Amino acid sequence: MSSHPRNDRMLTVEQLRQDIKGGGIDSVILSFTDMQGRLQGKVIHGGFFLESALENGSEACNYLLAVDTEMNTVDGYAMTSWDKGYGDMEFDLDLDTIRRVPYLEKTAMIQADLNYTSGERVAVAPRSLLRAQQEKAAELGFQAVAGTELEFLIYNTSYEDAQNGSYLDLTPANLYNVDYSILGSMRVEPLLRDIRNTMFEAGMIVESAKGECNFGQHEIAFRYDDVLTTADNHTFYKLSAKQMAAQRGKSVTFMAKPNQRDGSSCHIHMSLRGLDGSLAFWEAQEGKRSALYDHFIAGVLATMREFTLFYAPNINSYKRFAKGSFAPTAVAWGLDNRSCAVRLVGKGHSARLENRLPGADANPYLALSAMLAGGLYGIKNQLELPPGMEGNAYDSDAERVPHTMTEARDLFANSAVAQGVFGQEVVDHYAHYADVEIEQFNAAVTDWEVRRGFERH
């Protein structure tokens, strides 16, 4: 059994085997990504991993792709229910993803695809969706590369204290706007430095860290890669940042809009290349965008409203979309224009589009699937790129980004394009996911209601 590690800091099967036999690793995490973008799975003892799980994988209950955020079982999903007995899914280990988990003692992690016990791929699993779009791109002769820019807020309050205090009066790691501030970054550098160096050890290519606008808000950037590698790294990084903050008595949040100040984004940069790495988005001799690039941009724009549920998967996601917030409200594109949903940057091999719609709460597999599927739809149908936006897109008459999860859910559920590129099973599954979130939110009594109504109503 062989593997092809993504770089020399990740492990081959043989290296993992030798580390386990030599006592350097005694625990192996088998993980997959759920609908909410969280890594779920099992911690396997090293000896049992070599004896059984390496060859045979493992199993998990299929309810894990049919629960709400609180892990409650939810009726209404076609793939699983009490009537169907809540059967198993099988971990199909991706042995190219073996990495050490440096902040845990003697631990490695492997990420997995999910199959039914029949051997069929679980189509609604987020990693399955992205693999499917990656395969469609390859059929057309392209590979998709992407980078995700992920912002988060750091608090000098532990997760336990935050919960016990109803998430009120948290202490931000910075008490003022530290956008690009070296002083602001240095104040939290012990944590940021540890995260950067640990992610490097775990096989990621770290670029930089910088402060952002909200109090305690920061961003660590990683080098782009093929879309599946980027999504795998993204989910490992989110898990790790939370765990490393918790080990220091702090907390971080990737909520899209945790308070009334600036939200946290997940800008996605994407481009296509030939399977041999050749230019696809740029005409080198003419020094301009290729027609294929324009079709791709047009497809992302044409599907943006209908695919917003995959970019903004939570009730809170839609609180980001406000005028002048650096989060988009207009479905428009522009050259290096941050008021647009799609911003074009770079030339030659660096030519790429930046999708500014997703927030930090986005599931990277779903968001990357939506963006790639939209772009391929534009190429296949040779969609014409509308004129670029000049000036302030917030004040334009361009189509608007969906304002609520309900609007996004209805657009997605009734989208013929979504049904065509993802399949009816996927559309129904994630439309029901939205139904559950909306129903639960509508039934909740919020602190806003209590503050406004307790005395005055």
List the helices and strands and how they pair.
Layout: H1 13-21, E1 27-33, E2 39-45, H2 46-56, E3 59-61, E4 88-93, E5 99-100, E6 107-116, H3 126-139, E7 142-155, H4 159-164, H5 182-187, H6 189-201, E8 206-211, E9 217-222, E10 225-226, H7 227-247, E11 251-253, E12 266-274, E13 282-283, E14 288-289, H8 291-311, E15 333-335, E16 342-345, E17 352-355, H9 364-380, H10 405-413, H11 416-422, H12 424-443, H13 447-453
Parallel strand pairs: 1-6, 15-16
Antiparallel strand pairs: 1-2, 3-4, 4-6, 5-6, 7-9, 7-10, 7-11, 7-12, 8-9, 12-17, 13-14, 16-17
Helix pairs in contact: 3-9, 6-7, 8-9, 8-10, 10-12, 11-12
Structure explained in plain terms:
The protein is α+β, with helices and mostly antiparallel strands. It has 2 domains: 110 residues, Glutamine synthetase, N-terminal domain (Ubiquitin-like (UB roll)), CATH 3.10.20; 319 residues, Glutamine synthetase/guanido kinase, catalytic domain (Creatine Kinase, Chain A, domain 2), CATH 3.30.590.10. 35% of the residues lie in helices and 20% in strands. It is built from 13 helices and 17 strands. The strands form 3 sheets. Strands 7, 8, 9, 10, 11, 12, 15, 16 and 17 form a 9-stranded mixed beta sheet that branches. Strands 1, 2, 3, 4, 5 and 6 form a 6-stranded mixed beta sheet that branches. The longest helix has 21 residues. The N and C termini lie far apart (68 Å). The model has no long low-confidence stretch (mean pLDDT 97).
